[in-house]
């Protein structure tokens, strides 16, 4: 299992971020507090930055590398969906 290789403290904190999106959407739909979505996007981007700064993604350990790449891929999808909810198109390349 991929999560077995993600043991760094920042990874463990970061794993929780993407799975919060459905809850954020549900809460926003319920009470119209639309500021939650951009706040979530900022939190996700900030946590990703901390993860990327502290955890080398392209490591020699194949399993760890694949786990971290999977985490990056999930983040890309969730951030793209979050931006889409706000009517913002996400660039494929920077």
Give the helices and strands, then pairings.
Layout: H1 9-15, H2 21-31, H3 36-54, H4 62-85
CATH architecture: Orthogonal Bundle
Radius of gyration: 14 Å
**In the CATH hierarchy, what is the class?**
Mainly Alpha
In round numbers, the mean pLDDT is 91
Q: Give the strand content.
A: under 5%
- CATH superfamily name? Isoleucyl-tRNA Synthetase, Domain 1
What separation lies between the terminal Cα atoms? 31 Å
Low-confidence stretches: none
How many helices does DSSP assign? 4
The third-level CATH topology is Isoleucyl-tRNA Synthetase, Domain 1
User: In total, how many domains does the architecture comprise?
Assistant: 1
Which structural class matches the secondary elements? Answer: mainly alpha
Number of strands: 0
Helix content: 55-70%
> Would you list the SSEs in sequence order as H and E?
HHHH
User: Any idea what the shape is?
Assistant: elongated
For the biggest sheet, the summary is: none
What does this structure look like?
The protein has 94 residues and is mostly helical. The protein has one domain: Isoleucyl-tRNA Synthetase, Domain 1 (Orthogonal Bundle). The chain has four helices and no strands. The longest helix has 24 residues, at 62-85. The chain is elongated and about 45 Å long.
What is the structure about, briefly put?
This protein is mostly helical and 94 residues long. The protein contains 4 helices and no strands.
